[in-house]
Amino acid sequence: MIQFNNVNQETPYQLLKEKYDEAVDAGQKGTEAISISSYNKEISEVDSRYVNLKFISNDEFIFFSNYDSPKASGFISHDQIAVLVYWPSINVQIRMKAKIKRTTDEYNQNYFFNRSEEKNALAISSSQSKPIDSYNQVKENYNKSLKNDDLKKCPEFWGGYSFTPYYFEFWEGHESRLNKREAYEKSDDSWKQLILQP
């Protein structure tokens, strides 16, 4: 589930909240799963991955990750991302474009402190996406961290990312293929609405 805090009153944010509530009411699982695509200039590659969106606070979307991961390198190289959400229970797809940045150390520490020790042990013990000898080694590293590490102290290599969209597109699928596409693009601090052809 996504936690909404003081949601922005502008139209695209309210429409996203409306669609989210519809999906939850329809029994949608994994509503917090969002796909983020990024471009790494250093290696000239585009990459995508799912992350768990934790918060939408006013106009900021926030998730957490390892700051030494491949996605982090991509964000540093090129801070513009594309985001994709699909909730099949209501056949709605939401596309976003945004700039991404890290959350503050204080924010990370406050969030980390209130997480479960099990989640924190995994965050501390994992060098995310780095090769390892075996899955058993993953479990050994985790158990070692669970027993020995300060599980309330957020490590420097872990924390949040925040992005504020400047583009939304809401796609609603229909059996007739007369799909509805409604877009919002921000320019000079105001949103321009566009209806796109299917």
Q: Count of helical segments? A: 5
CATH architecture, by name, is Roll
CATH topology name, in short, is: Pnp Oxidase, Chain A
Describe the main β-sheet briefly.
10 strands, mixed
The figure for the number of domains is 1
Order of helices and strands: EHEEEEHEEHHHEEE
* Overall CATH class: Mainly Beta
How far the N terminus sits from the C terminus, by CA atoms, comes to: 30 Å
| Secondary structure category | alpha+beta
Query: Average pLDDT, to the nearest integer?
Result: 96
Query: What would you give as the CATH superfamily?
Result: Electron Transport, Fmn-binding Protein, Chain A
- Work out the radius of gyration: 19 Å
Taken as a percent bin, the fraction of beta residues is 35-45%
The best one-word shape is globular
- Number of distinct beta strands: 10
Percent helix range: 25-40%
